[in-house]
Amino acid sequence: MAERVGVVGGGLMGSGIAYTVALKSDAVVSIMEVNDELLDRCRQRMGKLIQTGVQRGAITSEQAASLGDRIRYVTDLGALGPAEIVIEAVFEDVPVKQKVFQQLDQLYPPKTILASNTSGLSITAIASVASHPERVIGTHFFNPVPVMKLVELVCGDKTAAETVTFARQFCEGLGKEAVVARDRPGFITTRVGQAYMCEALRCLEEGVGTAEDIDKGIRLAYNFPMGPLQLLDLIGLDTELKIMESLTRDLGPRFDPGPIMRQMVADNRLGRKSGRGFFEYEAKPEKPVKP
Question: Half-sphere exposure (CA, 13 Å, Cβ side) for 289?
Fold first, then answer.
């Protein structure tokens, strides 16, 4: 198991990854954000994750203190320090990720694994800016990271077999299970999952059912923990819109998100993060919102 791990990006996914690594190993974890304001938000998010772990009995107060001591917060990539693996979890945009990987490639020796937590962007494209693309791999964690068991490992065209082996062992050391996907649009999970959510959107647009009935029907019929529209709300409609539009460009109109999603994002109805999406989250139980 890695003794030193870097995480670039302290948002929802980056914080979850950092917390999970610190929780499941003895590694020192360094998290980088671009400024003090975002870093403070990351600290607060990490504090809530640790507090929740104590409240749920996952860790003791003593373990929580030790865990907190092993997490470092920095605002410069150069300050991340030595690491066996660095996981990037920044905005889902190829040029943004390429800029990060170009810097990481210069900062770290070839033996350091460089991983991207992308849910659908090309690992080959991200790795193209690196002088050692063989050490670049996709590590697609799922939200919420401490709970979800799966990590999808994505191999770029030049990813080495040794890199895949290291990444698999690293993820298994965190208590995760791994699947390996080729670097094709949407990989395995995003491609299948987006088709599922897109069809739910079309059912809503065509008036086949209400948001509440669509989710209830799918949830009960297939024994899913939540329906497709609630899942969209959980992930974030703005994030989902970018993913669907990217898949539409790569794979055709069957992934087109349609007018409802675009209008909701324009209206800042982004799901749980904004308090309102297909459902409202200020009050319980959730109430369906007409599109």
Answer: 19
Q: Whole-angstrom Cα distance, residue 89 to residue 18?
A: 10
CATH number at residue 44: 3.40.50.720
Query: Burial of 20 by CB count in 10 Å (0-12 exposed, 13-18 middle, 19+ buried)?
Result: buried
Task: Classify the C-alpha dihedral 230-48-83-179 as positive or negative.
Answer: negative
Distance CA 114, CA 107 (A): 11
> Nearest-CA neighbor of 146 among 225, 46, 273, 32?
46
Q: Measure the CA–CA gap between 116 and 251, rounded to whole angstroms.
A: 22
- Residue 41 φ/ψ, nearest 5 degrees: -65, -40
* pTM for this predicted structure: 0.87
* Per-residue model confidence as pLDDT tens digits over 203-260: 999 999 999 999 999 999 999 999 999 999 998 999 899 889 989 999 999 999 999 9
- The contacts of residue 142 (CB under 8 Å, 6+ apart) are 148, 150, 151, 189
Domain count, the chain: 2
Q: Distance between CA 248 and CA 154 in Å, rounded?
A: 20
Dist. CA 140–CA 238, nearest whole Å? 19
Q: In DSSP terms, which residues pair with 86 in a beta bridge? A: 6, 114
Residues 173 and 199 both lie in one domain? no
Give one word for 78, left, alpha or beta, with left for phi > 0 and alpha for psi -120 to 50. Answer: alpha
Cα–Cα distances in Å, from 176 out to 126, 230, 244, 247, 260?
A: 24, 24, 27, 27, 35
State both tokens at 6.
């870097």
